[in-house]
Structures
1.
Amino acid sequence: MIRQLVFIIILCLISACGISGKPIPKKPSNSGEKLYCKLSKLITLDSDIANVEVFIDYECRGCRKIGRVLRDLKKRFPKHININLFHYPLDNKCNRTLARPLHQNACLAAQYVLCAGAQDLSAYWRLHNKFLNLFDFHTSSLNLAVKESRVNLSELKACLARQDAAYRIKNNIEEGIRRGVNGTPRIFVNGVQIPVMRASMLESFFEALFLKETIDCA
């Protein structure tokens, strides 16, 4: 009986891992993995690190969803993913590519985050993460979010008055224009722009990117 049980276990291991004992690469089973296979020849990871550049607008619902996915991926793969934000508000107050108002509080929201970052880097990310769950971006709501994120509001307002953040946003927008960005969110991985996708698909794509040794793209 014991011999039969051991024999069955060995058969199961062979079936799951192959004769060599190594996991058998799986075929791409979802859109994220298929996208990885499509882009894998273009995206090269330096020391298994993905440098992710994201052009965002806080009033863009898709940007907030993507932002939450990237935040969670950073927690899951802290040594494998670096995130760099580019602020690309879709409003003619600060973005010269728009002829009319669109997200009318987006320029100010981006300035708030950059001015939080002028205090310290952790303040930048605290306010950014707070904005990912915000729905009302009027000034009163922004100020409340600042207080709840433990950012000094007086210092932030002084930063806004200096217009330093507005200048940085202009530079971010010009960089986006140079790269052909015409909407948000837009994501580049190690310099390669990846197609616009749903948040759930983006998560699968990065899982495939970091676990690529288990995927057979042939």
Note: The chain has nine helices and four strands.
2.
Amino acid sequence: MIFREMRLRKQELSRQKVADILHKGTSGVLALLGDNDYPYAVPISYVYDDGKIYFHSAKNGHKIDAIQRTAKASFCVIDKDLVVPEEYTTYFRSVIAFGKIRVIEDDREKRAAIEKLAIKYAPEDTAANRDDAISREWKPLCMLEMAIDHITGKEAIGLVKEKEKLKEILSVYPQVKAAYTGIYAEIFSKDASKGNGLKALSAHLGIEKEEIACIGDGENDSFMFEESGLKIAMGNAEEMLKQRADYVTSSNRHDGAAEAIEKYIL
């Protein structure tokens, strides 16, 4: 299946930033083929997990009728939308996914999907409370799974120019370094980093590099990786960090740090 390439490639977000936006977002707009072939776009909560997007729904209604008509759909999440009056525009950052939706019929799959959604929106709730809530709503509950065929992310040219301007400004200050997340920049002395801090601490405690394990998810954690014997990247980590890691654990939404500690430390 062929999808259109993004025309303004300079504004395209990396796959990792796209995933970060989907994980962080709290709602989006699901677009389906509605009645009389009119587009039907509905705001909806969701959870993104393992390359798929899950939604909850009633068992009957406009959404279900549209999905039965055709499984093809698109889903959009807006991460940033800053109005810039002097430019008559907004500085936006967004993701749009294209794929096919199915109604989850298997009870085990349905239960797993609603638990992912419940944990996202109430992460501090107890398992007992979560189970009670799911049980109460189980009978009328319908869960939908969207398998993604194509996904892109884009940010306003104003945000691109802001980052380029910052890089240009910092280039004349060799005494500082910067780590970019795509959302903000961390600026610090070239002599200050997690790596240097770890190196100083290990020297003070008399710990060899081979005895050190580090877990990270961001670009600034790459400095720490240089001073550790075992490099562990979170499942939601920047792609460059995953490529340098000895082991990639689960994401922060799935207790990845605990998983790595149990496997390699305890």
Note: The radius of gyration is 22 Å.
3.
Amino acid sequence: MHLGPATPVARRRRRLRTGTALLATAALAASGVLVGGAANAADGDPTIVSITPKALPALTDNQVITLTGTNLNQGDITAVTVAGCADADTDHIVVSPTTMYIVITSAVCATATASSTVGETITLVSTRATTDPEHIGTGTTGLFFKAPPALAAARGVLVDNAAIRTVDADKLATAPINAATKIRVTADGSTTWTTTGLSAKLNGVALTGIAIPALNEAGASNTGPGNYFTATTSATNVATASPNVPLEVTFNGVTVSLTTAFAFAGQAITVTPNSGPANGGTLLTVAGKFGTWTGATPPVTLEVNMVCAGTSTPVTVFETGTTNASLKFKAPQAIAGAVLAPCRVNIDNNGGLTTALFEDSAATPGSTFTYTTT
């Protein structure tokens, strides 16, 4: 194909490449790529050998493709086009005669048709060629744009704990910093999870034990809108100042970073025994890390509450044997409606103890207590 070096199309492409250079460089830097365009000498037509990755999320900006080939030169290649993307939304940086980066700077690349088996075609336009003043080198390299996974709009990542869901749903978006926690990741209406090729990281740490329950909590099929997978966090997590822990999911061949309303905060505690009579009086022991104090009992700033059906009942008297690693107190009398339903023991520092030695409690299976009828 011969366009001529001075055609309006060629001039427009050169202006476009200059105008988007800053966007391209920024996208590459964000991807951890060191850039510096190569003004290497190249003889002959550019060729395409391979590209990575082979799959990218559709309709997503600032995507980077690494292309290997021959006769690649920043000054000679006037344009790069990727089928499925408008050529006005791609740019390139050549780093050697055999390597270049293609940057898709706008969210315009459409999902491949279901019948496509060869992927999208990449085209390089170069002014240096053996026969033509402007030559096109084309390669079909197995590149596919695929629909990226998406989270449910409301609280897509939650602790997978039916007891806490009933007792204190507001705590479901927080996992402890000192214990592995089972969570669920819920998709929006356009994504249906499958375990094939599914992996995820929460706050940069890989989730383990990924599984997709056959049935949801309501007993219905866990497919279609609102379907979820479960996974387990690391046992050691970094506390987050705000509920925005990033989730990275690889699914359907593409990897995307998703925004969550999830946080790591507080410590996992253990309550024993985990049940007792509704009239109260059960001596409870709560194991954890509760700072330091002088005297026989903790300061008033250390608060313990029994949370049942969304209602908090304070515990005001600590029993003999209370230490900074083991709080002892008697369960209060059950409030109306709390019998045979789990309650949660909640412990707050309220700033009265050294925070380096004390974390508020998190909602975990071990933090629950159930009132029996007798």
Note: The chain has three domains: 8-146, 157-264, 270-372.
